[in-house]
Amino acid sequence: MTETSHETPAPTTAPTTTPAIDRGQLGLAGFLALLGGYTVYDATTLDVGFADPVGPRVFPYVIGAVLLLLAVLLVVATLRGSRPEADDGEDIDLDTPADWLTVAKLVGVLVFTIATVGVLGWAISGALLFAGAAWALGSTTLVRDVLVGTVMSVGSWYGFYVGLGIPLSPGLLDGIL
């Protein structure tokens, strides 16, 4: 008579590794906490009129408190091992270097706008800003870009001036707009 052993093999357990804590998320949480704390502190320094029941402090208190709450929630989630997922929908090639020429063109257009908005006015500078940004990003339809930029800048000028009561510089078009 032979005996057969019916021993079950010992279960093998995979070594448990604790996920690495994402220090970037903790850094973001720290930044949110600093920003929220400063917002709450800054709200305490605002002068409140006696006739205003709500006062100017309410919104900074709410925003600061929300930022502090988000910081705490992000720390808890990070310490529990939550990690952001990569976006599969991105259609960019991470191996392609940055196009610094385009960045330089955009910076140049923006600096030109800042330098000339007082003299030329928002309507003209805004139109040139739109057309210049479109050109820097590869548009080849200069006439259309200038026309669209003109409509948008004149429309936004009237929106600020008439709709919000905020006068933007008319520049060369003073008396025309």
Automatic annotation (TrEMBL):
This is Putative tricarboxylic transport membrane protein. The chain crosses the membrane at residues 58-79, 109-137, 157-176. The keyword Lipid biosynthesis does not apply. Signal peptide: none annotated. InterPro entries: DUF1468. It holds the Pfam family TctB. Keywords: Membrane, Transmembrane, Transmembrane helix. It comes from Nocardioides lianchengensis. Residues 8-21 have a biased composition (Low complexity). Residues 29-168 form the DUF1468 domain. It comes from the Bacteria. The keyword Lyase does not apply. Residues 1-21 are annotated as: Disordered.
